[in-house]
Amino acid sequence: MIWAQNPDGVIGAGNAIPWRVPEDMAHFKATTLGHPVVMGRKTWDSLPPRFRPLDGRRNIVVTRDPQWVGEGAEPAGSISEALELAGEPLESAAPTATWVIGGGEIYRAALEYATMLWVTEVDSTVDGDSYAPTLGPTWKVVEDKGWQSSTSGLRYRIRAYSR
Ligand code: VY7
Fold first, then answer.
1. pTM for the complete prediction?
2. Is 49 helix (H, G, I), strand (E, B) or coil?
3. C-alpha 138 to ligand 1 mean position (Å)
């Protein structure tokens, strides 16, 4: 899974990301390009239409609405169905084959299937209404690129977790 959060765990506000860090978008694109991405329907709706579907990736959208259609999207009725569509074995030795890209409800539901997380921490004080999942003690930081400054003026750091 891959997300960006602030120090309080905020990932979203009003169906948008409440900061703009171009370096994080580049990290997101570089990490996910060429791999299937799984997102919730609200995250799909949040993407600016010109970026939808995310190019160079299969876009699998989780929705409870069996009638839902999105141009360039493959609907799935659950996280497990989405992973199956992506061809992801449920206990995979190839951990980076599929990326779960949000949002909060999907991260919480998909955490049990995840083996690897890229978490960008953006040093921004903002109010939000969507939160990163709580990580249990088995998750360990395995890579830390350190604090960087964004052209936006915000500091951010990109860390990988594994378990
Ligand atoms: C989501 C966008 C949102 C608003 C405007 C443009 C980490 C991020 C996400 C999701 C950042 C986004 C975009 C950026 C990506 C572009 C297409 C345009 C692409 C995440 N760490 N950071 N995110 N796009 N899940 N995890 O900005 O997208 O990839 O092609």
1. 0.95
2. helix
3. 27
